[in-house]
Design brief:
single chain, mainly alpha, 10 helices, globular, disordered C terminus, cell membrane, SWEET_rpt, SWEET, transport, sugar transport
Length: about 190
């Protein structure tokens, strides 16, 4: 819905950038973890996710009047990711230690990805409007984080399971905000979703 809104209005008004940037970096990190672990589920899902998020970032950049700020944020997070890759692949020789440290690194990105939509929480409460939150992204986050938590539990991989639990919690918080500031009160939000 955010992509349709950007294309229709040719603007990025009421569209958050940070959740999609952190999701892209998150996908790239978990892709590396999947390659190291030999887990094709992680590899395929995160490859597709990284491609889609990168396309979203490019669309956001196209319609954003703040191109310099968007590029700076993107370059900063990619720099952190590349520095992490360099460290894990060049300076950690033991495969098991690399897997554990990379899993922890990816976990931090996952938690930041799930917390990023809450950056506007104060604004939502102050304005009593959820127009800056994406309902479809909230539902997708809830389903995705629950699925990954179950997958991590099934594999007994705490690096997959534990960092996805905040995604469930933050989605429930956002759903509560949508309920508290119902769509009837927020006409702008309804227009965004059509």
């Amino acid at each position: 819905s955010d992509l349709r809104h950007m294309q229709r209005t040719r603007s990025v008004d009421n569209v958050q950038f940070l959740p999609f940037l952190t999701t892209d970096v998150n996908n790239l990190g978990w892709l590396s973890y999947g390659v190291l672990k030999g887990d094709w589920t992680l590899i395929i899902v995160n490859s597709v996710g990284a491609v889609l998020q990168t396309l979203y970032i490019l669309a956001y950049l196209r319609y954003s009047p703040r191109k310099h700020a968007v590029l700076l944020q993107t370059a900063s997070l990619l720099g952190v990711l590349l520095a992490g890759y360099g460290y894990f692949w060049l300076l950690v020789p033991n495969l098991e230690a690399r897997l554990q440290q990379l899993g922890l690194f990816c976990s931090v990105f996952t938690v930041s990805m799930y917390l990023s939509p809450l950056a506007d929480l104060a604004k939502v409460i102050q304005t009593k409007s959820t127009q800056n939150l994406s309902f479809s992204l909230t539902i997708a986050t809830l389903l995705t984080s629950a699925s990954w938590s179950f997958y991590g539990f099934r594999l007994r991989d705490p690096y997959i399971m534990v960092p996805n639990l905040p995604g469930i919690l933050t989605s429930i918080i956002r759903l509560w905000l949508f309920w508290k500031y119902s769509l009837g009160q927020d006409k702008n939000y309804r227009l965004l979703q059509t």
